[in-house]
TrEMBL record:
Keywords: Lyase. Belongs to the enoyl-CoA hydratase/isomerase family. InterPro entries: ClpP/crotonase-like_dom_sf, Enoyl-CoA_hydra/iso, Enoyl-CoA_hydra_C. GO terms for molecular function: lyase activity. Its EC number is 4.2.1.55. This is Enoyl-CoA hydratase. It is an enzyme of class 4 (lyase). The keyword Lyase applies.
Amino acid sequence: MSGIRLERTGPVAHIVLDRPETLNALTAAMWHELRGIVRRLASDHSVRVVAIRGAGERAFSAGADIREFPSRRTGLARARAYDRLVSAALAAIQEAPQPVIAVIRGLAVGGGLELAAACDIRLAAQDARFGLPIGRLGVMPGLGETRALLRLLPPGKLIELVFRGELIDAEEAWRLGLVSEVVPIEELELATQRWIDRLLSMSAETLQATKAVVQLALRGATENDVSYRELLATVYEGVAFHEGVRAFLEKRAPNFPQHRA
């Protein structure tokens, strides 16, 4: 059993972390598989939105499966190999052309929080709990994990979250900027669908280009970089741009292509 389940509902792909008996703890194999799934979805132009959630009601993910650490993470060589697995999975999510939504119930701790941070939107039920209690394990955040968290938290707050060594509730996580929205447990699925509908009503090219230009800006790209010029051409020579402007001038709702370009 891989521990990850992929489901499709029209243009929406649902990635389910499916180890509820371990609070959806992430094995090394799951980090590797997650990267592969996201990269395959990235190349599927019929997929417009990706949602990631944990199976069951107790956890999005309690983080990495610590039982693997003695064999998978002990010593420099193994630690580097493990670090690359996690970083590659998080990078795949951040670089995916589709919006990625984390749907969070229960625990989002350690690697689970870092996975959620790599997503574009984080929806939390009121029972969600977040934290980085890694000081009790003697581990450190990897660079890829830190980059994901620094998209949401100032450096000082990230350090403070580790140093506190305790979990915070969904409301505090929202105040810190770790989550996009907090809703009652019974409204989490409705809130998720609202976000999906909102994203599906928008230009897929705009959503994809926004994620791409943020990545370019974070890497220090300039207006003269080839990647940026190619992005401009893709958007402003594309069907969605012409349809969006025409719809605005004609005072009607835009009819964007149903597939990504």
